[in-house]
Structure formats: structure tokens, C-alpha cells
């Protein structure tokens, strides 16, 4: 518990320091609930494969396949199967985010990444936040899902002193214990030992998708034309 508090504080401090030296993020889209921005990525190493031209349709397909699983589940994913997984993005969110993410990746530089932030308010849940980032490295799309309909108060259950709103840093996880992220179909996921290493506080929320395999999976799922 104390380690998570220390990590959260360290991450927040690093963001504040980074804002003092790095150029300000570039806004691609912003409304009352959604923000898509381009940020400098200090961990880009030799550089990402940007600008990256990925169609709105392909980005929407990616968002459609992102799943979350509660880390509080008693059954591991291998036993519970897909029944324990829930979609990270609604259909509305997929349609809203995809075109702006596609545009942002096309405008990003090799030392930059795209970040997204979305507020959701429902009568049953109240205010919740979905946020994270994405970038392209070679033929792989990295998607970091830092928060998935996460309540700003969830971190307080883990010992944080106040609520967190990661609007300025969408990669900041509000809670460390809530969920892990994965992707369906699993055949599109790049195995961990084949990934370019990009450090993050929670690798369980980093999804790496093989864009070439994703195209194959998409074609195989389309209904075959009748002779």
C-alpha cells in the first residue's frame, strides 16, 4: 500500500517536472467530456513510428476489442474465460474517439505519443474517468489503459489522501488494484517477449497489438460471400 502511495506521488512529481521543461501538449480535440492530445514522450528512445497513418475504422476496431478484467475476481482469466471480461469502450465512445485518435497519430512526431481522456457520468455510477495513451512502434500499436470508468475516489481506498483527476496526465492511474487490460481476439496481442520495452507503472494495463495480424483477424471474421 505504501509503495503505491510512493509510486503515485513520484509519478505526479515527474509529470510536474516534465511540464516545466517539455513543450505543452497539442490539443487535437476537446469538448465537455473528451480530450485528445499529443504529448512529448520522454521514453520514446530511438523514436516511435510517427507520423502513423491508421484509419479511423482500424482504430475503432482496436477500441472495440479492448477488454478489462477486475483484479478482484476470484477466478483467473484462464478459468473464467471471456465471460469475466467487459468492454472498455462503449459503441458511442468508439465512434467518438476513433477519428480524433487517427488524426492525432497522423500528426504525432517520433518523440511524441497520443493521450486520451474521457469523463462519463451515469446515474448508477456517477462521475467516472477513462484515460490513457497510444503510440505506434514498428508494426505494433501500444495502447495504455490507465483508467477504465474509474471513480476519482477509488485511490482513496488504497490510502491516497484525496481524489485524483488525471486530466493533465491521462497516464496516471487513479487506482492500482482495480483492473487489468487485455484484447479480443487474443491472436492480435504481441507476446511480452516480442515487444519493444516501454516502461510503465503497471504493465497489466499495456496492450500491444500486431497491426498486421489484426488485419488478418479482421479479414477472417468477415462473412464469406456466397458462391
Quick synopsis:
This protein is an alpha+beta fold. The protein is 27% helix and 28% strand.
How confident is the prediction overall: mean pLDDT?
A: 84
Alpha carbon gap, first and last residue? 61 Å
The neighbouring-strand order within the major sheet is 1-2-5-6-7-9
Count the beta strands: 9
| Portion in helices | 25-40%
Largest sheet composition: 6 strands, antiparallel
| H-E order | HEEHEHEHEEEEEH
Number of distinct helices: 5
How many separate domains? 1
Question: Which word captures the global form?
Answer: globular
Q: Rg to the nearest angstrom?
A: 17 Å
Estimate what percentage of residues fall within beta strands.
25-35%
Spans of at least 5 consecutive residues whose pLDDT stays below 50 are 1-19
User: Based on helices, strands and strand pairing, what is the structural class?
Assistant: alpha+beta
Any overview of this molecule?
- 27% of the residues lie in helices and 28% in strands.
- The chain has 227 residues and is an alpha+beta fold.
- The protein has one domain.
- Helix 2 (56-65) packs across helix 4 (91-107).
- Residues 1-19 have low confidence and may be disordered.
Write the layout of secondary structure elements.
Layout: H1 2-21, E1 26-30, E2 34-40, H2 56-65, E3 66-70, H3 77-80, E4 86-87, H4 91-107, E5 112-122, E6 126-137, E7 140-150, E8 179-183, E9 206-210, H5 211-221
Antiparallel strand pairs: 1-2, 2-5, 3-4, 3-8, 5-6, 6-7, 7-9
Features:
227 residues; alpha+beta; six-stranded antiparallel β-sheet; three-stranded antiparallel β-sheet; 5 helices; 9 strands; globular
